[in-house]
């Protein structure tokens, strides 16, 4: 974690401070290298990146982009190269920590997701914009040599993402046009998919961990699933405001105030009693179908309307897909991918801020901007109160790779939630 210009490294199990580093300016971004031996700290205002070593605390590295400025910084998959994007997206600079060599990639495109690495770390795809046209360049990460360079049939390329097996690259167009293009590693166009025209298009995409399915969320409140053989649609999932299917389980969050025995009341009340008097407990009830969900009509005359499928995530075993329809902000939809049907809906009291799957098993963690974290698995659903004094509003969360704990983040604080693993 970072506090102003200080980087604090803690033990993940005990939260004891292991190292304390002082940077040159306020830290705006931090990222671990893939082998967890180095930490990157980016200070965009100063155009500086500092790198710290855990094995050798006295070793340090400073990268100064100078007048070119800095808007983004990230690690390469090998954890020994740093990619810096300069201001106005003039170039991407690749710095080597081993040889101190520098490579340049020109004309990177300023888009949501313009750099993508294959999971094995062998190849990198970069979205480019030159001469008013979109291009994609594929580089070999071992020596940063150009492997393929080709133009894309897009009006305004919005993002690129590799399939987990590294064989197919998905590239999608601006939200003003529904178009997704699928390319092979050698730059061949495998398929183009368009669901409709003359309306707002793609909002989010997600590959399944097996690379067999590509889920596309769009502004028409639907998710379309493409298969990896023909790249044609096999089904589409709608997100209606009324759940009518009796086979769908709807968990509804309800709040209740805890009952306090009158014999225990005292004046002035003790701190523990006062906190229990004014706190509310949360639990889930199973709603009787049909269920009407809270539907929010988007404001038509404002940019970036809150509508359509804003969040998508496959479970690590490929069995489930979690989605959020921004028109129904308080609900998480969980789909059974084997049966291609809606399985569960979680109806929360507050709007969904974030959700993420446990990396080891089908267990979904959800936060809604209050002091609770919600966990769903096929066995059931539970709401967990974070035991902290004061206001701790969870706005995002992140699982540990082992799946036995997660970090819960509020605006100013963080805490770690430890989960007991069941012996299988």
From TrEMBL:
Pfam families (alphabetical): WD40
InterPro entries membership: Centrosome-WD_assoc (IPR052778), WD40/YVTN_repeat-like_dom_sf (IPR015943), WD40_repeat_dom_sf (IPR036322), WD40_rpt (IPR001680)
GO cellular component: microtubule organizing center; MWP complex
Transmembrane segments: none
PANTHER family xrefs: WD REPEAT PROTEIN 8-RELATED (PTHR16220), WD REPEAT-CONTAINING PROTEIN WRAP73 (PTHR16220:SF0)
Protein name, UniProt field: WRP73 protein
Lineage: Eukaryota, Metazoa, Chordata, Craniata, Vertebrata
Gene from which the chain derives: Wrap73
């Amino acid at each position: 974690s970072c506090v102003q210009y200080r980087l604090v490294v803690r033990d993940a199990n005990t939260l004891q401070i292991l190292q304390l580093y002082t940077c040159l300016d306020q830290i705006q971004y931090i990222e671990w290298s893939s082998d967890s031996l180095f930490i990157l700290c980016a200070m965009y205002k100063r155009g500086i990146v500092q790198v710290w070593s855990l094995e050798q605390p006295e070793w340090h590295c400073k990268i100064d982009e100078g007048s070119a400025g800095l808007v983004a910084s990230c690690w390469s998959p090998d954890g020994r190269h740093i990619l810096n994007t300069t201001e106005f997206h003039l170039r991407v600079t690749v710095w080597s920590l081993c040889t101190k060599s520098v490579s340049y990639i020109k004309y990177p495109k300023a888009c949501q997701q313009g750099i993508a690495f294959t999971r094995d770390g062998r190849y990198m795809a970069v979205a480019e914009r030159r001469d008013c046209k979109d291009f994609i360049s594929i580089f070999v990460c071992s020596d940063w040599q150009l492997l393929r360079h080709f133009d894309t049939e897009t009006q305004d390329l919005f993002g690129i993402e590799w399939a987990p097996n590294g064989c197919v690259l998905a590239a999608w167009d601006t939200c003003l046009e529904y178009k997704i293009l699928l390319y092979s590693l050698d730059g061949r166009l495998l398929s183009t998919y368009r669901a409709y025209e003359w309306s707002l298009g793609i909002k989010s995409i997600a590959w399944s961990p097996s690379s067999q399915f590509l889920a596309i969320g769009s502004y028409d409140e639907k998710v379309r699933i493409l298969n990896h053989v023909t790249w044609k649609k096999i089904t589409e999932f709608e997100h209606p405001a009324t759940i009518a299917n009796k086979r769908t389980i709807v968990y509804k969050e309800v709040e209740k105030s805890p009952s306090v025995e009158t014999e225990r009341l005292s004046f002035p009340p003790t701190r523990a009693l006062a906190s229990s008097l004014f706190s509310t407990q949360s639990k889930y009830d199973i709603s009787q179908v049909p269920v009407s969900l809270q539907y929010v009509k988007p404001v038509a005359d404002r940019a970036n309307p809150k509508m359509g499928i804003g969040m998508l995530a496959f479970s690590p075993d490929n069995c489930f897909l979690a989605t959020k329809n921004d028109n129904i902000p308080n609900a998480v939809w969980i789909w059974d991918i084997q049966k291609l049907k809606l399985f569960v809906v979680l109806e929360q009291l507050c709007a969904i801020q974030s959700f993420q799957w446990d990396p080891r098993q089908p267990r979904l963690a959800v936060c809604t901007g209050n002091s609770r974290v919600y966990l769903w698995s096929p066995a059931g659903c539970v709401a967990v109160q974070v035991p902290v004094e004061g206001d701790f509003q969870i706005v995002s969360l992140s699982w540990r790779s082992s799946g036995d704990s997660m970090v819960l983040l509020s605006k100013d604080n963080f805490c770690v939630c430890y989960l007991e693993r069941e012996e299988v």
